[in-house]
Amino acid sequence: MALIDIVSRRSRLDRQFDQLRRMEEAGQLKAATGSRFIRKFLNNRLAVVGLVIFTIILLASILAPLLTPWNPTEINLRAINKPPSWEHWFGTDKTGRDVFARVLYGGRISILVGLGSALVSALIGVIIGCYAGYVGGWVDAVAMRVSEAIMAFPEIILVLVLVSILGQSLFNIMAIFILGGWCGIYRLVRAQMLSLREEEYVQALRSFGLNRALISFKHMLPNALGPVMVNITLSTAAFILQEAGLSFLGLGVPLAIPTWGNILNVAQDLTVLQRNWWLWLPVGTFISLFVLSVNFIGDGLRDASDPTQQG
Questions:
Q1: What is the rounded CA–CA span in Å between residue 67 and residue 71?
Q2: For position 59, what pLDDT does the model report?
Q3: For 90, which of 39, 60, 83, 100 could close a Cys bridge (C-beta 3.0–4.6 Å)?
Q4: pTM for this predicted structure
């Protein structure tokens, strides 16, 4: 029975190869054009869905003044805890503020915190990891010890210390995320550079007398950017969740600034969870969809940049 299955598989493959050969001889097969990276990414359905969701939420947050006439900070005591309606799509909160407007405007701050912190962390980590990983010696040793010292401290301790010293602000939260976020990307880029610096083309460049910075940043770094892009997407999702968690606990962005975490802050009351579901369900859905979309994009970038996955 197993022999029959093998023979049937071979005959099926033979027919497929014969069909491809006939199509090639007839000129019906066209050579693939464009970037292979983009083709691989677009072939990943989840990645495309994630990109669409990411784009919709991002554009909705940017174009918030065009999508809602309400001010996210305007108090209306005549419309307290109103359920969703045609006037207020997501209802209103305990001070009469429109929840839909707060979700859209809050997305601006939350996405800024997540994406901005991830990009700055990646920039710092790539610069330090690229040069230190190629040069080695005391530069690499110092950078490694500093990263280990920072990663040894729990992030909640850094939050409490900085907030108690400088107070709550958007800048402080981003500074905390950047301070702890560059270490992981630094170690990732450093590992890539340690493997690349033994390649023959690097040895040839070194023999021509090129300086270290030119070799590491111009010729070696482009070959290590694939994992970095994936890490940026994962860091963005993680920072958004951390901001939401810190703001939910009252340690993040000041409550006067609408963010997804600050909107969820009202869900600490059990009565809100049971009766006023519109105060937490829409923003929770937005956070979940955005984080999932970023993770899907990261998976697509990982598969598209992996040489073993290229077809």
A1: 11
A2: 92
A3: 100
A4: 0.78
